[in-house]
Amino acid sequence: MFYRLSGVYHTSYASDSRIFKVPADRNLAVFFLLFGLAAPFIVPSIYLNSYMLPWLIWTAAALGLNLVTGWAGQLHLGYAAVMAVGAYSAVHAARFGVPWEFALIIGGLASSVIGSLFAFAALRVKGLYLALTTLAMQFIMDWVLHHSPTVTGGSHASLQSPTLALLGQPITSDAGFYYVAFGWCVLVTIFMLNLKRTGLGRALVAVREKDYAAAILGVNSFYYKILAFAASSFIAGVSGALLVATFFFLATPEQFSVAVSIQALAMVIVGGLGSIIGSYFGVALILLVPGVINNLVAAIAHTLGAQVNVETLAHIPNAAYGALIVIILLIEPLGLGKLYGNIREYLMVWPFDQFRK
Amino acid sequence: MKIRQHIRSVAIAAALMTSAAVASAQDKEPIRFGYCLDISKSYSFISPQVAQAVQDLSIYTNDNGGIEGHPVEIIVRDHGNEPQRGVECYEQLKREGVFTFYFLSTPVTNAVLPRAMKDGTILMQSFAGRGDAVDGEVFEWVFPAGPTYWQQAANDVAFIKDQLGGDLSDAKIGFIYLDYPFGQEPIEILKTLAEKEGFALELYPVPLPGTDQSGAWSRVRRDQPDYVISWILAGGHVVASREMRRNRFPIDRYLSVNWMNEVDIRNIGEQEAKGILRGTNVAGGQDIPIVKAILDTYYANGKGSGPEANVRDVYYNMGLALHSVALEAARLGIQQHGAPLTPESMKAGYESIVDFDADGLMAPITITPSDHGGGGKTRVEQWDGETWVPLTDWSAEYTDIVWEVVKENSSKYEQ
C-alpha cells in the first residue's frame, strides 16, 4: 500500500538498475532531503547543533566504515585513527593558511595514504587476525599522537581549529555548520547508493564473499582491497576534519581513541553491515540514544520527585542502553537496517499479504 | 492587659514581617550551576564524591540564607566522558539559562572550551583540563581556581629541597608517570628545575592504565632516587605500593599528585600506607569547619545527599572547595553589580576573590584578571595511618618559571 508496486516494471537494464526502484522509496528520500534542508528553520537549535550535526557527520563516517567492512568485508578496528589523520592534517593545513576546501581534501588524501597501509595488512591476514592488526594500528596512532606535541599541539595535546570558511565565506552560525555537515553526509550517501550498482561495488561484494573465488572470476582482490581501504579512509579523513571544524572546534587525541573506533564499528554492526539506511539508524542508536535515555531517566525521576542518588541515576541509562542493543540484535541480528527492511517488505503488499504466498 | 495585647500584636506583626521577608528571599531568582560530570566511566572514581559535596554544600547554603538571599540550584548530569555528550549537556543547560559549568573531564572540558570562550559562559576548570587556562588574559572565561600540574610539580620539588636541607645539587629525583598527556605534563617544568637546581631527574614512564609498573620500579631500585614524584591515578598507587615493597623503596619517599584518596589508601592498607605523601591544594580529613558542619547537620540525622563514606574522602573536600569558590564568586558578583547575576558579574566576582580559603578548607587563593588560578599554592600532606597530616604550610614556589611555561603554552592557543 505505502510502497506501491503496481505499475512498476522494468523494460531496460537502465531502469532496472535505478537507485530507487519503488516510487515510495524515492519519495521518502526526497522528503528527508527537503526536511534536512529546512531543518535549521524548523528544528530548535539545541537539537540542530548537538544532535543532528554530530549525527550527520558520524553517519558519513560510518558509511565510510561500512564501505570497507560491509561491502569489502574487511574488519576494521582502527577507523578512529584514520579519522584522526584526516582531522590533524586538515587542521594543520588550514592553520598553515591553506583554504579549507583544499585542507579538507588534503586531510582526506592523507588519511587515504595511511589508511591504505591497513590494506597491506589485509592482504596477508583475514577476519579476526585483521581485526587485531587494525587494532594494533589504532594503538600505534594513539601512541604517536600522545608523543608528538608538534602534531597534537603542545603538552595539552589540543589543537585549535581555525574558523571554517568555504568558498570564501566564513562559517560561524549553527545553521552554517549544519549545512556543511548535511552536504557532506548527502554527498557520501549518494556515493554509497551509487556504489551498489557499479562494477566497483559488485567487485567489492565478490571480494567480501570469497576473495579467491573473486580472483577466479577475474576480480583482482589485491587491487580492490586497497581501493576499498583508500576510499573508506578518504571518507573517514574528511569526516574527521569536519567533526573538528564544525563541532569540536579543536582536535584532541581522545576524540579519536580506541574507544571511538569500537564505537564506530558498533554503529556499523548495529545498523547493519552493507546497509545505508542502517548506518543512519546505527549512528543514532550508538551516538544519540545514551544522551536521550539519560535525559529521559532524569526527567522521569524529576517528575516522580524520587530522591535518586546521582550515581544510580547515571547507571540506569547505561543498563537500559546496553539492554536495548542486546534486544535489537536478538530480534534482528542483521541490524537496524534489516529491521527497517522487514517492515518495508511487510508494508509492500499490506494489506494483501496473502498474495505473497 | 492592654499592654500585653499590644505586645502580642506587635510580636505577631513582627513574625509576619520576618516570614514575609524570608518568603521574598526565597522568591529571588535562583543561581544555577551546571555540573555535567562523568559519573559512569573513567572519572567515576572521583565524580560521585564531588557531586555529593556540591549537593550538600548547596543545601547547606540554602538552609543558611542562600547567596545574598538567592537560592542555589545545581543540575547534575552524566556525560560518560564522551565529548559529544558533554557538548550536548552544555548546549542544553545553556538554553535553560545556566551560565556556570563544570565538567570534571579533560576531554570534555577541552571540547567545550571553545564554545564557552565564544558564548561568554563561565567554565570552571579546577582539577581537569588544560593547565595554561590559568592565563586569564587568554582564557577570559575559564576559571581553573587551583594549581596547575606544573605549579604542583614545582611545589613538590620545593618540598623535596626543603626536606633535603635546602640543597638539591647532589639529589636525585625520580618522576613516575602515566605515559599520556596527563602524566607527561610536568616533565618540561621538572627538566627546567633540574637544570636550575642541579638535581638529577630520572623519568619512569608507565603505560596506560598503570597496572604494569614492574619495569619502572626495578629501574628505581637501580637508580636509588631520594624521592619519587608520582603522576599516577587511582589503582596505579596500589600497584606502585606493591612494587615499592618488592623493590625496598621507602613509601614515605613517594610523593603523589593530588589524585590519591582514602579508597586507594584502604586498598594499599591503612597501616601499610603510613607515611605516603600527597601534594594538594585542598585540606584532607574531616577536621575542617564546613565538613564538620555538614556532618553534624545532615549526616548525623541521616539527611545527607549520599553515603557518609563518600564524605570521608579527600575528593569530597575537593568538591566542596570547587563549589565554594564558585559560590563566593557569585556572592561577590551580586554584591558588586547587584542581582540578577550575569556571566559578566560572575566573572567580575571571580576576579575579585582575595585570599579566600573557605575557612581552612583549601589553600588561600587570590584571583585576578590575569591569574585565574589564584596563586597555585599547595602543600604536602602525609598519611599517618588514620588521616592526613599537613607537613608544610600553603605555598607556591618557582612561580616565575611556571608562568613562563604557562605563557608559552597559552600563546599557542591564540594562534
Q: N- to C-terminal separation of chain B?
A: 82 Å
Query: Rg of chain A from C-alpha positions?
Result: 21 Å
Major beta sheet summary of chain A: 2 strands, antiparallel
- Assign an overall shape of chain B: globular
Termini Cα gap of chain A: 17 Å
Unreliable segments of 5+ consecutive residues of chain A: none
What can be said about the biggest beta sheet of chain B?
Answer: 7 strands, mixed
Helicity level of chain A: over 70%
CATH fold node name of the largest domain in chain B: Rossmann fold
CATH topology of chain A: ABC transporter involved in vitamin B12 uptake, BtuC
Provide the CATH top-level class of the largest domain in chain B: Alpha Beta
Number of helix segments of chain B? Answer: 15
CATH hierarchy, class of chain A: Mainly Alpha
Structural class of chain A: mainly alpha
| Strands of chain B, count | 12
Count of domain modules of chain A: 1
Description:
The complex is a heterodimer of chains A (357) and B (415). In chain A, helix 3 (45-71) packs antiparallel against helix 11 and helix 13 (276-304) packs across helix 15. Chain A has one domain: Orthogonal Bundle (ABC transporter involved in vitamin B12 uptake, BtuC), CATH 1.10.3470. Chain A is mostly helical and 357 residues long. Chain A has 15 helices and four strands. Chain A has a two-stranded antiparallel sheet. Chain A has a two-stranded antiparallel sheet with strand order 2-3. The radius of gyration of chain A is 21 Å and the shape is globular. In chain A, a hairpin with a 2-residue loop joins strand 2 (165-166) and strand 3 (169-170). The model of chain A has no long low-confidence stretch (mean pLDDT 88). Chain B has 415 residues and is an alpha/beta fold. Chain B folds into two domains: 3-147 and 284-350, Rossmann fold, CATH 3.40.50; 150-279 and 381-410, Rossmann fold (3-Layer(aba) Sandwich). In chain B, 46% of the residues lie in helices and 13% in strands. In chain B, the strands form two sheets. A seven-stranded mixed β-sheet of chain B has the order 7-6-8-9-10-11-12, with helices on both faces. In chain B, a hairpin with a 4-residue loop joins strand 11 and strand 12 (388-390). Chain B is globular, with a radius of gyration of 23 Å. The relative contact order of chain B is 0.14. At the A-B interface, helix 3, helix 13 and helix 14 of A face helix 2, strand 2, helix 3, helix 4 and helix 15 of B.
